[in-house]
Amino acid sequence: MISNEGMLVVVSGPAGVGKGTLCRALFAAWPGLEYSVSVTTRNPRPGETEGKEYYFRTREEFMEMIKNNEFLEWAEFCGNYYGTPRFHVESVLARKKTILLEIDIQGAKQVKAKYPDGVFIFIVPPSLATLSQRLRSRGTEPEDVIERRLATALKELENIYDYDYVVENDEVDVAVEKLKSIIIAEKCRVKRKSFSFKGEIK
Ligand code: 5GP
After folding, report:
1. What does the DSSP 8-state code read for residue 96?
2. How many Cβ atoms sit within 10 Å of the Cβ of residue 130?
3. Does residue 201 sit within a domain?
4. In the chain, how many domains are there?
5. Of 38, 106, 137, which is best to mutate to test ligand 1, by the most ligand atoms within 8 angstroms of its C-beta?
6. Distance, CA 81 to ligand 1 centroid (Å)?
């Protein structure tokens, strides 16, 4: 008999590169995947709801969660805190399912130190000009925040060599197909399976 081991997938890359859009499309196509809902201290954007996109918490609450060791990783990004609750990730892996984290590059580094066997995917924009356009067209952030995000993005692209895969987000459908293919192939790796053939042939 062949059974799956749990698998942790990290989708990271510069902010504004469309990680959220890709991950949403991936989940729509693949309901069996489990998603890690992060905690953040930033304000909800229009349409975002508690517990769906994020758990929205105050800084004080976030600090308390750090103190209580509730995060698998956490990072400060452009003036706000973001973190992955440890409990959900650990329980999904214990159930031998696949969990996907969509987090920034600082967070991905911390996760890699704890789960070197995870699958680390870096999303890149087709060009920096596209990234700048996307951040501006979202219209949710003031100009100084956008400038900071772009400067951060440029620096972050240097981290690409720490990842297993790179996916260019040019056309969403194509990028989602690539993400699916990566996950399917990774699930087939011998190291992600356990075997017990004893007693199968009579
Ligand atoms: P946004 O404010 O646009 O939702 O997210 C800003 C950045 O924070 C994005 O790059 C997003 O991937 C990242 N992010 C979201 N959740 C987490 C998390 O739990 N941990 C870390 N380290 N980054 C996160």
Report:
1. T
2. 16
3. no
4. 1
5. 38
6. 8
Ligand 1 centroid to Cα of residue 101, in Å, is: 10
Tens-place pLDDT, residues 43-56: 999 999 999 999 99
Asked, for residue 145, whether it belongs to a domain, the answer is yes
Q: Write the residue with the smallest CA distance to atom 19 of ligand 1.
A: 83
Q: How far is the CA of 29 from the centre of ligand 1 (A)?
A: 22
How far is CA 131 from each of CA 72, 120, 166, 196, 202, rounded to the nearest angstrom? 29, 21, 16, 48, 60
Residue 146's contacts (CB-CB under 8 Å, 6 or more residues apart) are: 132, 135, 136
200 lies in some domain: no
Q: Which domain holds residue 142?
A: 2-195
User: pLDDT of 55-113, one tens digit each?
Assistant: 999 999 999 999 999 999 999 998 999 999 999 999 999 999 999 999 999 999 999 99
CATH of the domain at 148: 3.40.50.300
CA distances from 107 to 3, 21, 92, 177 (A): 30, 19, 19, 25
Ligand 1, pocket residues at CB < 6 Å: 15, 19, 38, 42, 73, 75, 77, 82-84, 102-104, 106-107
In a domain, 135, yes or no: yes
pTM, entire model:
0.91
Question: Atom 5 (ligand 1): residue with closest C-alpha?
Answer: 15
Give the number of the atom of ligand 1 that is nearest the alpha carbon of residue 83. 19
